[in-house]
Amino acid sequence: MVGVDKAIIARYKVGKEHYEILVDSDLAVDFKHGKNVDIYDILAERRIYMDAAAGLLASEIKLEQVFQTKDVGEIAKQIIQKGLIQITTEHRHKLTEEKRKKVIQIVHTNCYDPRTNLPHPMTRIEAAVGEIKFNIDPFKPAEQQAQEVIKLLKPILPIKTGNSEFELKIPHKFVGSSKQTIKTAQTIKEHFDSEGNWFVTISIPGGMTEEFFDKLNNITHGEMLSKKL
Questions:
Q1: Which domain holds residue 115?
Q2: 40-68 per-position pLDDT tens digit
Q3: Model pTM?
Q4: Are 205 and 153 in contact, with CB atoms under 8 Å apart?
Q5: Which neighbouring-strand residues pair with 170?
Q6: Non-local CB neighbours of 123 within 8 Å, separated by 6+ positions
Q7: Which bin fits 222, alpha (ψ -120 to 50), beta or left (φ > 0)?
Q8: How much is the average pLDDT of 4-15?
Q9: What is d(CA 84, CA 10) in angstroms, rounded to the nearest whole number?
């Protein structure tokens, strides 16, 4: 539990009124992002304020009217999830950079260059994101922002989303060592021939194709056969 002197304010506005709690900045952000954090580890104190700076507490009557409960923990969860966390500029920058990297990784994994059927390098995607001047929101889901980025990138970068299907033949002596890598793709169908060779049809995001086949070729020493469907 963070001390009151090091806590920051999380605020939820309802109409003209504010409901505030004092929280640990890092843990509150983790909780807002869906991580499993005990609410009482987040709170600096078990109090709900109308104005934390002035020490003005919210009445139980008001709390029950707004949140349908008087339980401090449940109210605090709603304030963090629905409200704003007053993080420092340094912390916001850190969160923004982390989210930016996640967005770029999602674009890299799920998109590819239709001219080559290969993923764009991370550095190219990063430069393009800078070119379109997309403002990363540190609290908005990375997947949602990645979809917005992809739409904005299309006019300046040949980019396509979607999965590709391949039929693979894995020689019998490499079946065991290949299974973990094969599981990273979606298996559509599979069978073994009389010699124990593994025939498997997989579906994989375009951006993962190069890395996927690099791994399989290393495992099978180039003896794997593949055919794009």
A1: 89-160
A2: 999 999 999 999 989 999 999 999 999 99
A3: 0.58
A4: no
A5: 198
A6: none
A7: left
A8: 89
A9: 6
CA-based max dimension of the chain: 79
**Average pLDDT score over residue span 106-110:** 85
Q: Are residues 65 and 95 in the same domain?
A: no
- Asked whether the predicted pLDDT for residue 10 surpasses 90, the reply is yes
Q: Tokens 């990297």 — which residue?
A: 101
Amino acid at 143: E
Nearest to 159 by CA among 131, 196, 189: 131
Give the C-alpha separation, 114 to 219, whole Å: 27
- DSSP class of residue 188 equals E
Give yes or no for a contact between 99 and 138, defined as CB atoms under 8 angstroms apart: yes
Q: What is the CATH number of the domain that holds 194?
A: 3.30.70.240
CA 41, 45, 51, 54 torsion-angle sign: negative
Taking residues 153-169, what's their average pLDDT?
87
Amino acid at position 196, single letter: G
Mean of pLDDT values over 147-162: 88
Out of 53, 70, 85, a domain closes at: 85
Say how far residue 117 (Cα) sits from the centre of its chain. 25
Number of structural domains (the chain) is: 3
54 in the same domain as 40: yes
